[in-house]
Amino acid sequence: MAKQNIYDNETFFAGYSELRAREANANNLFEIPERFALLPDLADLRILDLGCGSGEHCMDYLNMGAKEVTGIDISEKMLSVAKEKNSAPGIRYIRMPMEDLDKLEGGFDLVISSLAIHYIEDYRGVVKNVRRLLVPGGEFIFSQEHPINTCHTGGDRWVRDETGYKLSAKVTDYAKEGERESVWFVDNVKIYHRSMSTVINVLIEEGFKIEKIVEPKPSEELLEKYPDYYDLYHKPDFLIVKAKAES
Amino acid sequence: MAKQNIYDNETFFAGYSELRAREANANNLFEIPERFALLPDLADLRILDLGCGSGEHCMDYLNMGAKEVTGIDISEKMLSVAKEKNSAPGIRYIRMPMEDLDKLEGGFDLVISSLAIHYIEDYRGVVKNVRRLLVPGGEFIFSQEHPINTCHTGGDRWVRDETGYKLSAKVTDYAKEGERESVWFVDNVKIYHRSMSTVINVLIEEGFKIEKIVEPKPSEELLEKYPDYYDLYHKPDFLIVKAKAES
Description:
2 copies of one chain form a homodimer.
Chain A: H1 10-21, H2 26-37, E1 46-50, H3 56-63, E2 68-73, H4 76-85, E3 91-95, E4 108-113, H5 123-133, E5 134-145, H6 147-150, E6 158-160, E7 166-171, E8 178-184, E9 186-193, H7 196-205, E10 208-214, H8 220-225, H9 231-234, E11 238-245
Parallel strand pairs in A: 1-2, 1-4, 2-3, 4-5
Antiparallel strand pairs in A: 5-11, 6-7, 8-9, 10-11
């Protein structure tokens, strides 16, 4: 299976860095706070961050009391930013695609992954490995693009009025799982669509107990400030799952 | 909270009976087989059927080995059909809206509900009662209209080509939970939209462990026979959940 490393594409990297540097993007407003709200007390935990990118959350986890943080990422560019900006004793970065997790040794109390799982074709393989890497009772908290989103097969995602205002999201081929090509700064970013039932059932089948799922949406206050995010009321962008490794 | 009894509306009842009498409707092709596939061995189980309608499944459960089946329904019309066509020692029918479940005594091994939960405003109240009515380790298996479906706020649900062919489902106000008015044989059938995360999280919060979720879709063979059901690839009609009462 191909391991996709779009983050080392120059055009993608530039576009992505600019997006993440903006204050009010959907990650900062919705995905990050909701994912952090699911975290347990991190004191003394050994944490693995799958797709750690530039490592800012690895540093956050350490500051929140974690004993050790391991960040893995496929992208050399991302990891060089991580090493430069977010190094500390207690954090180690390893260049490794998520598909190679079987090379990693276990004993983690918490595995976290932010918006990376939908780039992976072999979801069950990753889930199996995460289960192996966790101690019994350990937790797996991950976010991904929402299945209502990943199913998209091309063209405008929205039904709009004549002014371009978004009236409804278009949902197409939700039940057809597999590869989708997406345009996000560069052409041909590959994501893999899985239905909600597959995302949940594979976790259960591989020894996890579902603890909570979150479909972030804007608060009233946020909507007043950023009315354009009303589109998240029509269709959630993100899905966040918290699951416990059963003993 | 209003208890809705559309099944005792004459027009609704006539339309619904005709629909269910046809062989190849979505219930018979998708909802029923997938729900039955989730059933455990019924031998000696005490079963409660919430919204049992005309009782045909109560009779099936008894024939599959159940010890006792209790069917409750809000509709007198439905229950009179049930008593006429699907009576047996071991089956009892009680006229009771699901909102009054706290009047029922517990000790059930399995609670089943087919396509009735989305008519209920107080979902948490029903889930709490089902947990109370089940023995520890007992199971709750229910189907409902899929959240991608229940969110619908009116108008055509589909983006179509000029011939009327369905290209994409329209998804609107998914994150806005609450009452929806639906037209299904009669106007103003009220359903209550809840997001997938609410459906799942309320079960977990009230003491259930999620065992499996199913979003039925047509098989290749079914699609060949009934190509119109391709629309279920765009958007699932049903959600089926299997959950276990934790001890």
